[in-house]
Amino acid sequence: MKILISIIGPTCIGKTKLSIYLSKKLKTEIISCDSRQFYKELNIGTSKPSKKYLKKIKHHLINNLNIYNNYNIFLFKKDVNNILIKLFKKYNIVIMVGGSFLYEKIIIEGINKLPNLKKKKLNIIRKKLYLKNINYLLKKLKKKDFFYFKKLKNKKDKKKIIRALEIIYITKKKISYFFKKKKIKSPFNKYIRIGLNINRKKIYKKINKNVDLMIKKGLLNEAKKLYIYKNKNFNALNTIGYKEFFDFFLKKKKIIKIV
Predict the structure, then answer these.
(1) Cα separations (Å) of 47 from 82, 144, 170, 174, 224?
(2) Bridge partner residues of 7 (DSSP)
(3) Cα 115 to Cα 175: distance, rounded to the nearest angstrom
(4) How far is the C-alpha of 118 from the C-alpha of 251, rounded, in Å?
(5) Chain segment 21-78, per-residue pLDDT in tens
(6) What is the SS3 assignment for 71?
(7) Phi, psi of 42 (to 5 degrees)
(8) In this structure, are residues 95 and 16 in contact, taking their beta carbons and an 8 Å threshold?
(9) CA dihedral 34, 134, 69, 178 (to 10 degrees)
(10) Sign of the dihedral through C-alpha 186, 188, 189, 191
(11) Of 4, 2, 32, which Cα lies nearest the Cα of 191?
(12) Secondary structure (DSSP) of 127-173
């Protein structure tokens, strides 16, 4: 029996400490499903496990990407499956931890196999679609694939809508066609989901303390170094803790110019 233990919950609730504790007790390794801890350049603002923790227990999918790398949930699923296949040869239990619920959900509940799209065609279509407003995109999706349009919970999720239209335009098939296919299998027989939660006021206090600590550690300087890449539209930089600083730097520049 191969078991995956998943630990999820909001920021600052203690997921890392629990994952380290369990991995020691169970003598196993940890896979991160935090979509921002993948990136080498994002350190202080993503609350990565300390070097001390990383030395104690082997972690996977932390510092494995650069901010310019194109990465998505499908590549993540593929990477996790490959890692699990290797780890389950050594262990019966593996731990996964992180605050990115979508990434965790895809590993636990599975994902439909979508087609690989050619980069040249994809880039041309994507650029055109991003210029359109959300209402235009929704109308197109409704017309092209009413079933998927109806199923879509967040009608303001522009990225998801564009992704669906890209598949429709390039493959000439409805995206709902691909969702009817069998899901990509996972290499575990059973999973255990551990969801952590506490009173909201306590969470907010913990987050505020953590933000103060990040500032002391040098989050401002880290954000300054990354600001030069702001206009590159790297998805990795659309991260809470960094984008607020980018807005601040931009306003500061405008004020200086006016003065």
Answers:
(1) 26, 42, 39, 40, 18
(2) 97, 194
(3) 10
(4) 38
(5) 999 999 999 999 999 999 999 999 999 998 888 888 999 999 999 999 988 888 899 9
(6) coil
(7) -100, 100
(8) no
(9) 80
(10) negative
(11) 4
(12) HHHHTS-HHHHHHHHHHH-HHHHHH-S-TT-HHHHHHHHHHHHHHSS
- Which residues, 6 or more positions from 145, have their beta carbon under 8 angstroms from its beta carbon? 164, 168, 174, 175, 176
Which tokens sit at 110? 């599975």
CA atoms of 148 and 179, how far apart (whole Å): 9
Residue 83 confidence (pLDDT) above 70: yes
CA gap 190, 84 in Å, rounded: 13
Q: Is there a contact between 4 and 193 (Cβ–Cβ < 8 Å)?
A: no
| Distinct helix (H) and strand (E) counts, the chain | 12, 5
Q: Is the dihedral of CA 205, 210, 213, 215 positive or negative?
A: negative
Sheet holding 93-97, edge to edge: 59-60, 30-32, 93-97, 3-8, 190-195
Span 119-141, pLDDT tens digits = 777 888 888 898 999 999 999 99
CA proximity to 83, closest of 4, 181, 25: 4
